[in-house]
């Protein structure tokens, strides 16, 4: 049977203690970020005319080079027909000139045709050949213009806006559709006092309530823009899985803005009585005594202590 003294010693040796030590923590600021595309480019008409065919609508996915609309210029068809007629006339004249040149060469070889007349026949053939080549080149230019009626997607992504409909009259360079690239980022606007505390590569956390689909809970800052507007600095953060969000949708994120030294202790060393938090401090020459402390934030099983204890104090678990 154990003696009371032995039991007291056994209990004393089983008491858990914790030495208070400061640790560096990072303060996070909650901000709202918007889902944005890295690049937003307009698909523009290369020629003027009327929208004869519109193949996309808002929200459609497109690949670079896809035909998203066809612009028809009614003036090109008669112009091509006129050039074709001109080329046909030059071709007939050229056939006749070549026949004349063949006869002139035969007569010249027999010595009954002057050199000057032979040169004139050769010149007529050369002039008609150049005129026919010019007409064919003009036709190629008109055909190329008609092909430029195809409005192509400038990059792979998703259509955000289509401000025209079939039958709309457009001018050269007018926007037919607005295409956003398939690389999405979170665009943050932070107060300018945090401009020096953020940099490329810093990590961010996405609020759990905003997570949908396969969105990653963490990301990193991709770019910090070197310009402050309206007292705010803008930065882009990369987070995997943002494709399920709408462009312009707001998402709450947490970003590290400062680092400081503080004290964290295990929650088991805090005794709460009547709404007041106590810890038991062990001193070298006295029995443990209770000290009132002020709680801070909780991280896992550790609680931040704002006041009441200092570094080096030995806590006894109550």
Q: Can you tell me about this structure?
A:
The protein is of the alpha+beta class and 318 residues long. It has four domains: 64 residues, conserved putative lor/sdh protein from methanococcus maripaludis s2 fold (Beta Barrel); 90 residues, Elongation Factor Tu (Ef-tu), domain 3 (Beta Barrel); 66 residues, OB fold (Dihydrolipoamide Acetyltransferase, E2P); 71 residues, Helix Hairpins, CATH 1.10.287. Helix content is 24%, strand content 42%. It contains three helices and 21 strands. The strands form four sheets. A six-stranded antiparallel β-barrel has the order 2-11-14-13-12-15. A hairpin with a 2-residue loop joins strand 16 and strand 17. Helix 2 packs antiparallel against helix 3. The longest helix is centred in the first third of the chain and has 34 residues. It is rod-shaped and about 140 Å long. The protein starts with a helix and ends with a strand. The N terminus is likely disordered.
